Recover the amino acids of this structure.
């Protein structure tokens, strides 16, 4: 970690900092203590790991939220359109978009967007975090896979709902198609979409590792990669613990939200 | 769709197998004076930052990516099949322990666990294969366990048992042939996933060592010049996407073939 030219004094110092002078079971207990008391130290700068992470976290949160907004704003209309125009060319096109969206990896979509919209058509800045325009390309890159997944889901769930009895009743009452679509169909479509969106939030976090590297976005994803490259193991551990914890917490919150949104689940 | 998938995958497998005969330049050679040259009749897809021939690197990269994908998938498949069968067939404390281990491994989102483990290992082809197998067997184990649980209660298993077959014979000769199809479908999706995963690891510099021409390493090299000029990033990406699409098409096709209930 320190390189081959490190001096014996500093080797001893960092061995002590990482508790490597203790027996292995004790090392683990001391490591856990450091994690929970927020005493994890970077190597070799001895900077506090949590301070470093909290400095970079807002950028990742901002990116993830915009990616989510992009995914939801595009996928729900796209999926509903595909379902309403079931088996027409519009359905075909929107399903083709979602198939491509699922198959395209982040580390290729990102460069493609940069080549198209930053070099060929200089609309957006290439990388780095500066103003609202700079977040557009990273958010699209990160959100596309989720957009694709959610539009498929919206389509399937809308197709199921428009065949339900209560939709026929609404139509028989003489309501207009728009009212039915927005008041009756949309609300019921949203239930499964919310759940999957929540579960996918975790995938967004790990996808941000690649996206942030592509765009030099200063979040925890690129922090993790920097830490790996400089063999700063405590910082790697910190980032991984944070991302994994967030993933579990978000999944739990989704389950709670799900029960709140759909009273039928609470009854069981 | 399945046919397109088969054609794509066969093409890339052939490219990987016969790479030495198909390349026009040594994929490891460099030629700094002609770096970033656009596609021409000598360098069909242009030259990258170090002057390497992009076409030859892509062909050679097919060999690396498919080796990683095929070997890791096979390893995951057999580990998952074996452990999952034991868990499903015998049940009890072994089942509990194994399934909790699977839960722990699946609690990490996406590739995070692989990134984290890769950080502590030196980049090498063998390590990459090992990492994907360590994480990849969990999916196979789950599917196997569920299948074995339902198969072992069926009449034909009772029949062979009453004929005096022992446990290993029942499992290997009678249960396994009946549960293979969902596992093979799973395997073709896992292949696509590993190709993306391997390229991601290499892109981040913790996968295949940088001197081996792999698709991820080519994109990583392209990143060093901010993906400029465009063709150095576009061609390796097309290769990755076509291979992944190919495996996904095959997976979809096989699923429809073996499970007509899912067909729409």
């Amino acid at each position: 970690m320190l390189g081959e030219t490190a001096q014996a004094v500093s080797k001893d110092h960092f061995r002590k900092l990482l508790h490597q002078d203790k027996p292995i079971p004790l090392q683990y207990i001391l490591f856990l203590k450091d994690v929970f008391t927020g005493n994890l130290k970077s190597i070799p700068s001895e900077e506090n790991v949590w301070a470093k992470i909290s400095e970079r976290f807002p950028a990742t949160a901002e990116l993830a939220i915009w990616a989510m907004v992009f995914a939801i704003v595009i996928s729900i209309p796209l999926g509903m359109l595909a379902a309403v125009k079931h088996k027409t060319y519009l359905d075909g096109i929107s399903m083709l978009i979602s198939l491509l969206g699922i198959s395209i990896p982040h580390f290729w979509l990102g460069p493609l967007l940069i080549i198209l919209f930053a070099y060929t058509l200089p609309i957006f800045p290439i990388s780095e975090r500066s103003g609202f325009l700079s977040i557009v390309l990273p958010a699209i890159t990160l959100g596309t896979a989720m957009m694709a997944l959610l539009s498929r889901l919206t389509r399937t769930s809308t197709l199921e709902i428009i065949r339900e009895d209560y939709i026929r009743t609404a139509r028989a009452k003489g309501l207009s198609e728009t009212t039915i679509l927005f008041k009756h169909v949309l609300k019921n479509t949203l239930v499964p979409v919310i759940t999957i969106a929540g579960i996918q939030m975790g995938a967004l976090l790990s996808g941000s590792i690649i996206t942030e590297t592509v765009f030099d976005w200063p979040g925890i994803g690129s922090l993790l990669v920097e830490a790996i490259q400089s063999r700063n193991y405590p910082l790697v551990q910190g980032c991984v613990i944070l991302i994994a914890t967030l993933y579990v917490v978000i999944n739990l919150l989704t389950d709670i939200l799900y029960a709140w949104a759909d009273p039928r689940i609470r009854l069981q | 769709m399945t046919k397109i998938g088969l054609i794509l995958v066969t093409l890339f497998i052939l490219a990987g197998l016969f790479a030495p005969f198909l390349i026009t330049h040594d994929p490891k050679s460099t030629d700094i004076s002609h770096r970033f040259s656009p596609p021409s009749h000598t360098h069909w897809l242009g030259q990258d930052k170090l002057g390497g021939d992009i076409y030859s690197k892509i062909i050679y990269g097919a060999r690396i990516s498919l080796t990683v994908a095929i070997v890791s998938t096979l390893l995951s498949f057999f580990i998952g099949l074996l452990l999952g069968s034991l868990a499903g067939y015998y049940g009890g404390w072994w089942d509990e322990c194994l399934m909790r281990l699977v839960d722990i491994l699946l609690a990490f989102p996406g590739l995070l666990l692989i990134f984290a483990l890769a950080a502590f290992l030196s980049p090498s082809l063998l390590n990459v294969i090992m990492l994907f197998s360590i994480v990849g067997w969990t999916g196979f184990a789950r599917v196997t366990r569920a299948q074995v649980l339902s198969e072992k209660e069926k009449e034909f298993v009772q029949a062979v048992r009453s004929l005096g077959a022992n446990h290993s014979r029942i499992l290997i000769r009678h249960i396994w042939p009946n549960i293979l199809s969902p596992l093979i479908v799973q395997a073709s999706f896992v292949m696509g996933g590993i190709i993306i995963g391997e390229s991601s690891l290499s892109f981040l510099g913790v996968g295949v060592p940088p001197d081996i021409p792999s698709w991820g390493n080519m994109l990583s090299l392209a990143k060093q010049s901010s993906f400029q000029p465009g063709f150095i990033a576009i061609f390796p990406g097309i290769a990755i996407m076509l291979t992944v699409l190919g495996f996904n098409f095959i997976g979809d096709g096989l699923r429809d073939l073996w499970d007509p209930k899912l067909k729409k």
In short: The interface with chain B takes residues 102-108, 111-112, 114-115, 119-120, 126-127, 202-203, 205-207, 209-210, 213-214, 224-225, 227-229, 231, 233, 236, 240, 243-244, 247-248 of chain A (CB under 8 Å). The first helix of chain A runs from residue 8 to 17.
